[in-house]
Amino acid sequence: MISEHTIERIRQEADIASIIGGFVNLKKSGSAYEACCPFHNEKSPSFKVTPDKGRFHCFGCGKGGDVIQFIQEHEGKSFIDAVEYLGQKLGLTIEDDDLPPTPAGRLSISAYRYEEPLPELPPAVEDPEPEEDDDLPPLAKPVKKSFDWKSKVEAFTDEHAAKLAEWRGFSREFVDWLKREQLIGVHNGSFAIPVAGPDGEVNRCHYRLPKGWAYFPKEGDSTALVVGDPLHAAHTLIFESQWDAFSVLDLLGHHFDPAPFAAIITRGANSNTDVSKLPIPNLIAVPQNDPDEKRSKTTGRTPAEEWLHKITENKNSDTEFAVAQIPKDHKDANDWIRDTNPSNEEVFRRIVETAQNPALKGVLTVDDLLDYDTQNDESSLIGYEKRFLGRGGSMVVIGQSGIGKSTLTTGFASHAAAGVPWNGIKFRKPLKTLVIQAENDEGDLKEMLDGVFAIMRRDTFTKEQIRAFRKNLIFRQETEKTGEEFCKWLESVIRETKADLVLIDPLLSYIGDDISQQKVASQFLRNWLQPVLKRTGAMITVIHHTGKPPKDRSSMKSWSDSDYSYLGIGSSELVNWARAVMVIVETKEPGTFQLRITKRGKRAGMVDQFTGHVVNQIYLRHGGFAEGQSWQQTRYEEEEEEPKRGPGRPPKSENKPVSVEGYLRYVGACTTHQDALKAIMGGNNMSIVRAKAVVTEMIRVGLLVRGADGFYRKSELARTRSSTDESPHEENTVERCLL
């Protein structure tokens, strides 16, 4: 076997740029060289050689390593042949190592630790001869009983090999290789894996029980199992489980020469994750797919994510690191390979070629974005046709205190749970909806749901829709937790309930600090709450209060959507953070409210039920007696401002008492408040002030009655009076209304 001294000398003395330049047309690029990769077809250069580090790397196919690995890859040579080839080019004598080769399974990470040479010691001084006449027998040195791993390997019979190959889906050739390399044995009738001590020698085993794993002997080291040579391999793979490692190595052809891979097996997610002692050139982690149920309530990470986190934190600073992702519908690599029987090329592509540095996770190329199908974006769940709100998204609902925001948002949540459009806004599917609230007790919630059921009966929800509503909508009261504690608690509840949509009512109960401070709002929303949405994929709707309404409401007529968005109490950071904003304000007509979607409103798909048009604002009123606590669309038209009068008194004729019944003939059978005003003004050359007085009096005495749809209709009394009596009535004069 070639000595380690010779190998290191070749690495140090070989000019990697000169050696590779003999095979590839390198071009100078700063302190490095670049070229089109010799290992895959490409038009633009992504192959880089860095002489200072003595390494090459292709950013296209991922191949990389030192000068020895290049000769192995490019010339198809074994490691020994590559070393001998380079030794001849450098004129070096290839020295052999007197030590026997170490079996592939006997190495531990500790065995790779680099030690400082021991200092030279002075010549030993011989002990003087012991005096005679000592009657005590010499002390016998204690004999340490060695662990006999070889016998356990020999106990692994052909029958065991056939059973393991069938059970785990390994090829028989690979299982035979495991035995040859002393990587598999039998202890007490169970499959066993070797455990090496710091010196690299096997001193115990890890064996399988019906319910888990155990060590024999119980006391001793529990180091990682190292297969191959991580320092010289083109790619070193790290796994939690030996079965995952063996499955992948089998399909990658590790049991054939040359073997360009090595593997580190940590024996579980909580041990042996410190690989900082090894200057591994290229490390690829292959984590398992743990279910969300295993997520830690403290860290929010699954065991596999925690394992990956530890490896990332504890790798050598010079190691190029990447993470491979096995298909999500399989729990681990062995499960995937055993169930789907992928080709060697597919395993190489998924484990090696497409492995990605976790620091670059989520990075998108132009090609990725051009290929993205926005028309079929499964992550878009609310107003999904135009991607109004999707997983991890946020919306703020802003309104005055006491107007019924909770009732409004409960109606929204109920439609989301049933999967039924709310005022035209469509849901991709019935959403699991969680309402977190602090102010409403069970009685309040019951009254709101009574209103919801009344609307469902009126709108004839199907049995399936009502069943989905009852199944998917849940409420949780929380009155103690605030700030970061609340957000951590919220994440655990979202995971337990698997909520798609969460409503927080109101925000002020949970922020736990002064929301007018931008720093406070940013920390709560961006640093604590948003990561919860990112990790869980839940959407959130936050209910928030406005400050005092403007004294001059007429000024709001000229407001933009942006102006309305910032009506909420506190820092503007709330609106800046939110993906969408919805605002509800009262109009000049008591009991009628305007609902505006002021941010992303054109995407929501909200519909005016009276015109059928897609709009970003509608008008609402509280439900009638039969509808309970609810909100319904209504008609409303902004009144025109009365033109300013010139100097002097109004025409004398406008002060003349006139019966309101006389104006009924100008009013249509079904009309709006605005249309009635225009009709009366136009037919009588009347000012808007007097026309308002006429219409108000008609409504007061019951001549005009407003329906649930917002239209005004003539009552039976009006029809009688307009046909039988058109004389003035003192009690119904405009003057009474003007007083």
Automatic annotation (TrEMBL):
Q: Which UniProt keywords apply?
A: DNA replication, DNA-binding, DNA-directed RNA polymerase, Magnesium, Metal-binding, Nucleotidyltransferase, Primosome, Transcription, Transferase, Zinc, Zinc-finger
Q: Which GO terms describe its biological process?
A: DNA replication, synthesis of primer
Spell out the InterPro entries in the cross-references.
DNA_primase_Znf_CHC2, DnaG_primase, P-loop_NTPase, Znf_CHC2
**Acidic residues composition bias: residue spans:** 126-136
A GO cellular-component term linked to this record: primosome complex
The residue ranges of the Zinc finger CHC2-type domain are 33-87
Segments for region (Disordered): 119-140, 631-657, 719-739
Gene3D superfamilies hit by this protein: P-loop containing nucleotide triphosphate hydrolases, Zinc finger, CHC2-type domain
What's an example of a GO molecular-function annotation for this chain?
Answer: zinc ion binding
UniProt xrefs under Pfam families = AAA_25, Zn_ribbon_DnaG
Which cofactor is essential here?
A: Zn(2+)
Spell out the protein name for this chain. AAA family ATPase
